[in-house]
Design brief:
Number of helices: 14
Strand order of the largest sheet: 1-2-3-4-5-6-7-8
Order of helices and strands: HEHEHEHEHEHHEHEHEHHHHH
Number of strands: 8
Largest sheet: 8 strands, parallel, barrel
Structural class: alpha/beta
Strand content: 5-15%
Helix content: 40-55%
Radius of gyration: 19 Å
Shape: globular
Amino acid sequence: MQFGRIALILQQKRNILMARNIFKGLGIALITPFTSDGAVDFVALKRLIEYQLMNGADFLCILATTGETPCLTTDEKRRIKEFVVELVNGRIPIVMGCGGNNTAAVVEELQSTDFKGVDGVLSVCPFYNKPSQEGLYQHFKRIAEASPRPVILYNVPGRTGINMSAETTVRLANDCENIVAIKEASGNLEQVDEIIKHKPERFDVISGDDAITFQMIASGGAGVISVIGNALPKEFSRMIRLEFRGEYAAACKIHHKFTELYKLLFVDGNPAGVKALLHEMGMIENELRLPLVPTRVTTLQKISAILRDLRI
C-alpha cells in the first residue's frame, strides 16, 4: 500500500514537470554539417554548438528538418544525438525531432528510443497522407500518451501538405497535458493569434518562421526555433530579449536588418541558405545530401555581400 502511494506521488510529480514548457526564447534548428566526402562532420558540429552556447541560444532542436534528418542513417542519428547530449551536458535544454506519417511507427519509436539527456520531442504533422483535423487530433493524442518527454507540435503546411487549424491545436493543448507548445510555421498570423487567444496558460506558441518571429513574439509568442540562429544567434537572441522586455522599437531595428537575409536563406531551400552563410563565416563545409544541393552562385554572392555589410 505504501509503495503504491509513493508511486502515485512520483507519477504526479512527473506529470507536473512534463506540463511545463521549458523551451522559450531562442531555439536553434541545428544543421548537420558534412565533410567534403559526405560524412557527418563532428568537428564542425562541436564548433557550431559551442558557438551557440556562447552567443545566447536558449535551447537546441536536433534531428529535425534543418538537420536534414530524412537523409541520415539510423546510426548517424544515434551518434549525433549522443554527441550533442554529451557536449551540451545539461547547459541548455535539448528537443529532438520524432515524427512521421505512420502513427504506430512514431509511437514505437517513442517507446524504443533512448531519450537520456533529451528534454522534449518535436513532432511534425503527418505529411503526404493529408489527414482530417480529427485525424491530426487522434495522431497527436496517441503521441502525447506514448512520449516519455514533453511534446512540441510542429505545424508546417508548406512541407506537409496539411494545415493544423487553431481549433485542433487548442483542443490538443487542453486535452493533452504532455503537449506543452506548438512550433507554428503556417505563416498565418491570424491563426497564430487565434491559438494565443484561446490556448491554456501553460501552453506556448513558438515561431517556426524567422521572418515573422518579431510579429509572433509581439503577439504573445514564447520564442522561436530558428534557422538564421545557426549563424547569427547573438543578434537574433538580442531581438527576442528586447521584445520580452517590451523594447519593441529596438527589437524592430534588428528585425529589419535581417529582412533581405530571411529571404535569401530560403530561396534555394532550407538548409542550403544557412549552410552557405555558415560556410562564408568559416564554420562548416558547404555540403548537403541529395536530393538537397547548395545554393546558386548568385544567391551565395548576395549572402556574402550582406555578411560583409553586417561585419560578421
